[in-house]
Design goal:
single chain; 179 residues; alpha+beta; 50s Ribosomal Protein L5, Chain: A; five-stranded antiparallel sheet; 5 strands; globular
Length: 179
């Protein structure tokens, strides 16, 4: 079992229940899933780029990602319906907790000039949206094997959908917010 998962269920969850004054342990917020997403617009002209991004996301997340396709045509971007335009991986269970632990302890401290996560990154449903300008903050990737720097998005989805409860959960898990 993951260290973060053990910590959540043995220490964080009971403390949150007590500090928030919740009557039931199932009312305590919990991270339901983590979604890692990369947009690859250049895949329209070069299909081999998509294979490279799939390999990178597979290294980062530990599971094979899904190729996302365009839902509608967009003439300005030369995209037709059904064109592959991105890659995403949805993490749950053990892989999710392992990824979260890596994100909190290794990846976020490696971000250049990190001053804390802005609280506006947490939406009304309590979901935390993190954007990374380059994929090299993840230690699994080697600079020499990267063909081009790409940004990626990490979304943490929580249950129940309450912004204030979610912020308290993120702080208890170890995310540092800017004041």
């Amino acid at each position: 079992m993951s260290n973060l998962k053990d910590l959540y269920y043995t220490k964080i969850r009971p403390e949150l229940k007590k500090s928030l004054g919740l009557e039931n342990i199932y009312m305590v917020p919990i991270v339901e899933k983590v979604v890692v997403n990369v947009g690859v617009g250049e895949a329209v002209s070069n299909r081999k780029v998509l294979d490279e991004v799939v390999k990178q996301i597979q290294l980062i997340t530990g599971q094979r990602p899904v190729i996302t396709k365009a839902r509608r045509a967009e003439a300005g971007f030369k995209i037709r319906k059904g064109f592959p335009i991105g890659v995403k991986a949805t993490l749950r269970g053990k892989r999710m907790y392992d990824f979260l632990e890596k994100l909190i302890k290794i990846v976020i401290p490696r971000v250049r000039d990190f001053r804390g996560i802005n609280k506006s990154n947490v939406d009304q449903g309590g979901n935390l949206n993190l954007g990374f300008a380059e994929q090299l903050v993840f230690p699994e990737l080697d600079f020499d094997t990267i063909d081009r720097l790409r940004g990626l998005q990490v979304v943490l989805v929580v249950r129940p959908q309450d912004r204030d409860l979610a912020i308290k959960l993120y702080e208890a898990l170890g995310f540092k917010f800017a004041e």
